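Whiteboard transcription, Tuesday session. T.W. wrote the structure tokens on the left side:
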């Protein structure tokens, strides 16, 4: 499968956006935990898993975008 440069940049942008959003959310979640907000443990576990999964997805999208961009430059 081949991607155009604009598709490659879109994937890179979405990957970067994922990192920005989920790292910000992780900081906010950590601050809430430090303040002692009262939530069941399932809340903390679910959100932590969600953050990790979405950071992995962002890394995959950015990697695919970078590879596609390099491939487009060679062609």
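and on the right, the sequence the group agreed on:
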């Amino acid at each position: 499968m081949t991607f155009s440069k604009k598709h490659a940049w879109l994937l890179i942008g979405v990957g970067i956006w994922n990192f920005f959003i989920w790292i910000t959310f992780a900081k906010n979640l950590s601050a809430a935990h430090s303040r002692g907000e009262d939530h069941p443990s399932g809340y903390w576990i679910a959100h932590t898993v969600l953050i990790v999964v979405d950071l992995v997805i962002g890394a995959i999208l950015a990697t695919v975008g970078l590879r596609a961009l390099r491939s487009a430059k060679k062609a």
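Someone added at the bottom: The two ends are 14 Å apart (CA to CA).
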